[in-house]
Amino acid sequence: MSNMYQWADYYDLTQRGVAGDVEFYLEQAKLAGGKVLDLACGTGRISIPMAQAGIDVTGIDLSQDMLARAQVKAEEQGVTSGLKLLQGDMRAFDLQESFSLIMIPFRSFLHLLHVQEQMKALTCIRKHLAPGGKFIMNVFVPKIQHFYEENEKMSLRGTYPLPSGEEVAMWDYTRYDHFQQLSEVTRIYERTDAQGVVTERVKGRFTIRYIFPAELHHLLRLNGLKVTQRYGSFAKTPFDANSSELILVAEAL
User: Fold this and answer.
1) What are the residue boundaries of the Methyltransferase domain, all occurrences included (predicted)?
2) What is the pLDDT of residues 50-73, one digit of tens each?
């Protein structure tokens, strides 16, 4: 079975992020007033708007397919400078420079499946932070009710119309391993023509490790980072028991 990230066009179509995240990260980049590092930048959903705003941004991603798509999008949107795209691993990178803002948007930290991997990534991040720099990330908040409702079930995540009159449906089959805090997802993209006939069906798989808020605070602290702000949404609402998203702003200790 393929890695779902090789289907960069389908990813782009279906993964729109969390409401308000592009605007939030763009605002934070402007406030940082220096170079930005976007880890797991994907197809440039956030990096490209930053470069368009005149910000010097470096994007790193493991997937060459995603980076190739990002390069095409950047060219299509007139980005000729200020954006550097590199294939790399957030667990082990050494860019020989520092950044005023380092970010991991759209829950990509959750792709690190072991505590040792999380620690390696945070060590690299701490090393690359400029004096006074900020590290910002967001993750979803694990909810026991969602685990129960979604475990070993096929769920329709959404349908997405194409200009051609075709439509793409995205389905997920999720299995949880609560001992290791893993969510194993089999994702299916199903493309239908205007008559409703399936013309393409592709299947991929990915695994994430969900993380609880208190656990994340401790991880950051252990790696020389302190949380200075936290929000429950990109509208900067307070984080509380009803929040479904956790946005953390951290600085070096």
Assistant:
1) 36-133
2) 999 999 999 999 999 999 999 999
Together in a domain, 128 and 176: no
Collect all residues with Cβ–Cβ distance below 8 Å to 72 and sequence separation of at least 6. none
pTM given for the model: 0.96
- Residue 85 domain boundaries: 7-140+211-252
The Cα–Cα gap between 123 and 224 comes to 8
Please, what is the end-to-end C-alpha distance for the chain in angstroms? Answer: 43
The strand pairing partners of 174, in sequence order, are 151, 185
Q: Are 22 and 41 in contact (CB under 8 A)?
A: no
Q: What is the pLDDT of residues 174-213, one digit of tens each?
A: 999 999 999 999 999 999 999 999 999 999 999 999 999 9
All residues at 6 or more sequence positions from 199 whose CB lies less than 8 Å from its CB, including other chains: 166, 191, 192, 193
**What span, in angstroms and rounded, lies between the C-alpha atoms of 245 and 242?**
9
